[in-house]
Amino acid sequence: MHILDISIMILYFSVLIIVGVIGSKRAKTADDFIVAGRNLGHFMYLSCLAAVILGGASTLGTAKLGYQFGISGIWLVVMIGLGIIAIGLFLTNKIFNLKVLTISEMLEKRYNSQTRLISALVSVIYTFMLTVTQVIGMGTILHVLAGWNLTVSMIVGGGIVLFYTILGGMWSVTMTDVVQFVIMTIGIFFIMLPMSISKAGGWGSLKENLPASHFELGNIGGETIFQYFLLFTLGVVVGQDIWQRLLPHEPKLFLVAERLERDYIVFFMRLQSVSLECALLLSFLI
What we know:
Elements: H1 2-24, H2 30-35, H3 42-53, H4 56-69, H5 75-90, H6 92-98, H7 103-110, H8 113-146, H9 150-200, H10 203-209, H11 222-237, H12 240-246, H13 256-285
Helix pairs in contact: 1-9, 3-9, 3-12, 4-13, 5-11, 5-13, 7-8, 8-9, 9-13
């Protein structure tokens, strides 16, 4: 099984690198590199946004919360979903109309160059912390599955992502996001969910063996839920990584805000499922 795990990971990373290289061939201008030429189709757009949300924090983070608090651990990803919905409803059209590439550029148009500098510094700090959590998430998975040193695992995982990102910019990121979106969707909904529920003995067995508090939405505490709102809902709204996924969408498509809202509700439900599935799996297998 150890050899099989390593083989699967090598195949997975090889596919990401190849897809990233293919994507780099489409990045011929600065606009292509930063926002994929503002020309992503609807499926690619949906995939890249879902992939960036269903990352290390949404999977590994909610797995721990699910194990500790049961279904109440769902609130972390619920707040991320609310932030995405808020962007879709209130900001998307304005962002497209401004034709900007970054949040800092938008603030400069609205206020002044000093505002752009301050927001850029804040964005750098935010993105750095976000990158750290994602690299730790990748490194942890490689460490557990392959048995490698944690530091080496983080360097390998983070290095591969850095390689294809620098190589092709948003086109490479988007195309690899599509691959990861397909893999995560199949893995979570069609493999992990049936296997974990079956291993637990079915839904009835879950209710019999888990504490009643694990099925209460407020088990995690109102204070924590409010903290998640401040940190994740508001954080997503001003996150450059999320905006970077909004900008490449085709501006020619009509009723953009309505379509975004529908997609975000789908993401919202998917994120809820991730938390619940991880709670079921960890509560019985750890």
